[in-house]
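The protein record quoted in full:
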Amino acid sequence: MTSVNTQNQKLVSTHYTQFAGAARVLASQAHRHGLQPPGFRSPPRIVGVDRSLRRINNGVVVSVLLRGRPFVAVLSDMIEGVVAANRLTGREAEIARTVLWQSVEMLLVSDEGETRVA
């Protein structure tokens, strides 16, 4: 039973590492393109949701559920969190999504490689 718990903890910590890396990349790209980068945390305080957004003073915190979700779903929530935090709509939102997805594409490729290793 202990080895199973250790394996699960390793998987969870790897996931948090991926989340932290994605948060750094997305915040950097948001800032680079004139957007306000939100803070990212996990899990959301609201039970039963995959993503929540909280506006605090002049900042925004995007909370994303990690456990039991594919990394691409987590990335999607993080990107939508940046769009929502900056109140982007229409063409501006589409441009931001494209730029942000391009910035994290390398994380998905490296994630695929790790999951295919036997």
The first strand starts at residue 39 and ends at 41. Residues 1-7, 9-13 have pLDDT under 50 and may be disordered. The beta strands are 39-41, 51-56, 59-64.
